[in-house]
Amino acid sequence: MISQNHFLILGAIIFCIGLFGALTRRNAIGILMSIELMFNAANINLVAFNKFLGSPDGLGQIFALFEIALAAAACVVGLVLVLAIYRNAKSVFVDKFNLMKW
Amino acid sequence: MQNSILEFLSNTGIPLVSFEQACFYSVAFFTCLFALLTVVSRNVFHSAVCLALTLLSIAGIYLLLDAQFLAVAQIIIYVGAIMILFVFVIMFTSRISDKAIRQANQQVFSSLLSAITFLFILYILIVRSNWLIPAVITQPLPSFTIRQLGSSLLTKYALPFEVISVILLAVMVGAIVIGKAEKE
Predict the structure, then answer these.
(1) Contact list, B105 vs chain A (CB under 8 Å)
(2) ipTM of the modeled complex
């Protein structure tokens, strides 16, 4: 029997993998990919809660659906920002974006 | 036939796992494997492909959790739309998949340490906490169908549903404005 904890721990593992990626990547696109991983880990938790704790109107699944839409929106804005910065700084590596660093 | 196979398997001493468990562990293994490859791969394009495979595996996890609509939405939105966007941006920004360019910064060890510590803390929290499981858990929870999802999305949660469309419009306008090349 697969319990709720199995899914929660899977979500925690994926979240930590995404955290590691977001902390170590130099590439801005790689950082965005890691953030997508973290979003998905949160989604797994929501759907697992929906199944195991029971919700009459499926609040967990609806919340996960909204989160997919918001993650898509965040990803679009982030990628367009990366493109805009690339046009100016000619690089996608975040340690090159030190224009505002004192 | 099936009974004899099961009997043979139990005689060999191999621990029997149910079909559900086998599905869960294999899908979870592939999810973690591809997620790791996404994070550590040196070539950005390879990590984009691995991210797409991770998202597909997560759709499998949703299927195991009885969320069929969410699995399909995950495949359409993430694997179909967002990954195309990632690949386009990778192609627009040239010379980034070069082997000679370092992809990780100098904080690899401290990041690894903090990620593992955070995972450990999360594990302790998940295992130790008492979830508010309903008392009627003995009888199976009513399964939540796509019909119910659609009706509650358009009745009880109609306002957030509309707010999402406003946000998507704002994102579209913002992306066009930011991404537009400046005229000389």
Answers:
(1) 24-26, 95
(2) 0.91
